[in-house]
Amino acid sequence: MRVLALAFLLVGSVSASVSAGAAERTVTLDVKDEDVRVILKTMQTQCGIKNLLIDKEVAGKGMVYFNDVPCETAFRVIFKQFGLAGHVEQNLVTVEPRRN
């Protein structure tokens, strides 16, 4: 009886982990010399974000390789790489140049 209960607990915790991980969206992207606006819009689509607000001064090109990176992490990396400031919420991402 103890073995059966332990097996049930283990299977239950693995299922919970898989379910939680399945809900988190990720970004897979491999681009070279691509405009940051195109990169952000591609990430918006992959992450299922409905609203993306990009300041008109946001510009630049770069190389990005992401393989199943969580969306929020991917946006933070792009902000840092391109010298941007931004805010990521469930259905809204705002992006602007970082002010010194």
Mean pLDDT: 84
The largest pleated sheet is described as:
3 strands, mixed
Helical element count? 3
What share of residues are in beta strands?
35-45%
What would you call the structural class? alpha+beta
Tell me the overall shape.
Answer: globular
Order of helices and strands: HEHEEHEE
For the termini, the CA-CA separation is 64 Å
Number of strands: 5
Q: How much helix, percentage-wise, in residues?
A: 40-55%
Q: Give the spatial strand order of the biggest sheet.
A: 2-5-4
Low-confidence stretches: 3-21
Radius of gyration (Å): 18 Å
Q: Topology, please?
A:
Blueprint: H1 2-23, E1 26-35, H2 36-47, E2 51-54, E3 61-70, H3 71-81, E4 84-88, E5 92-97
Parallel strand pairs: 2-5
Antiparallel strand pairs: 1-3, 4-5
Task: Give keywords.
100 residues; alpha+beta; 3-stranded mixed sheet; two-stranded antiparallel sheet; disordered N terminus
Task: Characterise the protein shown here.
45% of the residues lie in helices and 35% in strands. The protein is built from 3 helices and 5 strands, in the order αβαββαββ. It has a 3-stranded mixed sheet with strand order 2-5-4, covered by helices on one side. It has a two-stranded antiparallel sheet with strand order 1-3.
TL;DR?
The protein has helices at residues 2-23, 36-47, 71-81; strands spanning 26-35, 51-54, 61-70, 84-88, 92-97. It has 100 residues and is α+β, with helices and mostly antiparallel strands.
